[in-house]
Amino acid sequence: MTLLAANAAEGVFIFAPGMLWDFILIASLFVLVFVMIQRARVGLPIPEIRKIAGLEAIDEALGRATEMGKPVHYSPGMSGFGSEMYAALAVLSYVAKMAAQYDTRLIVTTRRPYIHPVASDIVKQSYLEAGRPEAFNPEDIRYVSEWQFSYTAAVMGIFQREKPAANLLIGYWMAESLVLAEAGAQAGCIQIGANTNIFQIHFFIVTCDYTLIGEELFAASAYLSKDPMLTGTVVAQDMLKIAIGCLVVIGTIIATVKGDAQSLIDFLSL
Amino acid sequence: MTVEQLGNISASICIIMAWSYLWKEDNPLYNLAEHLLVGIATGYGIGYTILVQLVPRINDEIIGNQHYSLIIPAIIGCLIYCRFFPGYEWLSKICMGFWIGYGAGNHLAFNPATYMPQVFDTFINLTNINNILYFLIVIVVIWYFIFTVRKDTPVRSGASQLGRYALMIAFGSAYGSITMAYLSLIIGQLEIIFRDTLHLIK
User: For chain B, how long is the longest CA-to-CA vector?
Assistant: First the structure.
């Protein structure tokens, strides 16, 4: 908004300055995703996603909770609406469907008040799709607190009182990551953590049974659903990552040969 | 007793109540601390929202500056309460639709701008071992996060494995440094108990 207002004042109306390549990047991603989805639609082969242990383990965690007759705890993380939250809600949809099929109680805790109704609707819809709408209990989808450590303290209390058999912490996590994962471990949960925050993910690696590292979270919905169209979006992202890898190689070669890559940086800053 | 002393004593009691979790998971002291924290945060949040968000916007912006257009998002925001009225739940989805759409649009529009400078920072001279290592690690880690290319040859799988090891070394190092930061937080809490409240240390 600020950028747009500034540009309007300067009489620039089409592109914000210095964002041409950002636009090209996003436009390329759109085109690639569109092409891959079309390929999937007409039945052309789409590469498979490699095995991601953390996602394979979700079924195992739900199975364990079912056998033990205990609930599953799921949290979509601390962020607001953004890529991590959308990915976490996509995984929630899968987990809720599986929980409904296994007749396992699912407790979802949210930190943001505006995420709560979305999470609630997703779980309700998943129970409906699983053919068990009567099993949906709105009381188990809980808004806890907007404040980081109030949320943490309350979820730790839920771990103590309700003793879930599985704890799924999927999304963006900050300083509470270690506290929550450690409390989950003490409560005897099998734990799957996913975090895109590189400054906190190591706490999940040491305390959780399985961890999704960064980008692995964004491949989750396609991986879990095995839907070729969703897989197509992951293929498109991979192609963009390869292009950026090539750009890194080109930039490094130019920097090594010429002393610096300022000319390339200036070009890409248009 | 001064207000400061009372504050220190309350803080010390709350710290001990919270730490009682380490002694026994399900104990009344921790439960009290938990409910106090959640309750106080909720109360503070409501007060903050009314005094810092709601009142200035209504008084200063809508009434004072006559920005009546702000009434439109306010009405859309209020639609979220339709969840509580059977038959009108669908209206709350309008509000959520705006929010989700804004989140997706904002993310797509402004996120690449944060990534490009990171790419530029990888354009470095391969003239010393540090830079060569840096470059190689960037490449193998990008390779590790490519999910749909088969890693069925020794070179492909080896590079991916190398990327994983590089990540683990980085995470190990971050773990050490952040744990040190947490230790300094614990020292801060101990100072409240032993220095400010009990005056046992100077």
Answer: 74
Count of domains observed in chain B:
1
Q: In CATH, which of 1.10.1740, 3.40.50, 3.30.930, 3.40.210 is domain A53-224?
A: 3.40.50
The DSSP annotation for B77-107 comes to HHGGGGGGSTT-THHHHHHHHHHHHHHHHHH
Give the closest of A118, A183, A238 to B149, CB-based.
A238
**For A27-57, what is each residue's pLDDT tens digit?**
888 898 889 888 888 888 888 888 888 899 9
Cβ pair A47:B150 closer than 8 A: yes
A171 three-state secondary structure: strand
Long-range contacts of A204-209 (CB under 8 A, 24+ apart): A204/A169, A204/A173, A204/A177, A205/B168, A205/B171, A206/B175, A207/A178, A207/A181, A207/A182, A208/A169, A208/A181, A209/A57
Smallest CA–CA distance, residue A98 to chain B, in Å, is 24
Check if the beta carbon of residue A163 is closer than 8 Å to that of residue A138: no
Domain regions of chain A by residue span: 53-224, 227-270
Q: State pTM to two decimals.
A: 0.87
What domain range includes position B125? 115-202
Q: How many CB pairs under 8 A join A and B?
A: 167
With CA atoms as reference, report the closest residue to B161 among B184, B185, B178, B140. B140
Going residue by residue through chain A, which has 270 residues, state the pLDDT in tens, using 9 for 90 and above.
444 445 545 555 566 677 788 888 888 888 988 898 888 888 888 888 888 888 999 999 999 999 999 999 999 999 988 889 999 999 999 999 999 999 999 999 999 988 999 999 999 999 999 999 999 999 999 999 989 999 999 999 999 999 999 999 999 999 999 999 999 999 999 999 999 998 999 999 999 999 999 989 999 888 888 888 788 889 988 998 999 999 999 999 999 999 888 989 988 887
Q: What is the ipTM score, two decimals?
A: 0.86
Examine residue B110 and state whether it is found in any structural domain, yes or no: no
